[in-house]
Amino acid sequence: MATARKISRMQYSTVFLLALLVIASSFLIPANYLAYAHTFSSSESAEFLSLVDQIRAKTQQLVTMNLENSNVTLAQAYAQKAADSQDNFTISEIRERNNRIADSLVTGLRNLEANVTSLTSDSQEQIPQEGTIQEINDSVMSLNDTLAEAVTVRVESDQQNNATMWALVLAADDY
Fold this sequence. Notes:
Elements: H1 2-28, H2 44-68, H3 72-85, H4 88-97, H5 99-117, H6 130-154, H7 157-160, H8 163-172
Helix pairs in contact: 2-3, 2-6, 2-8, 3-5, 4-5, 5-6
């Protein structure tokens, strides 16, 4: 029995010495609090893809959804925000590569805004006519096709399939 107690005392003293060594070393060797991570720098392609996502969200989801729910005022606000999302720099970048797509994008956004704005705010209490909603949905679908063409023209294919690029797109999104 004396041997068993000797072993356990020996284990306790070993554990105690190891704990003391770890604590002492933390005071003697200062800890380095550096964290290493990937930093994303923004790029024009990521900003463009983010802009396309924002326009799609505002038109496809927010405008059409609010029209279907008879909230014309909110649909008008989102249509105006979608039309205002484009800027001259973005359009000129697209125009450098394809004039038709740049013109179609500007025209599509302005037509959508005009179609939704033409609904009077008095009709907020009434359900917009099914034909009007279908016409606006057709405008949205046409606009989405134009946006898809703009992406293929503006962003290189290897960037479209790059995970870092899509992380930058998500980081740039500010709906």
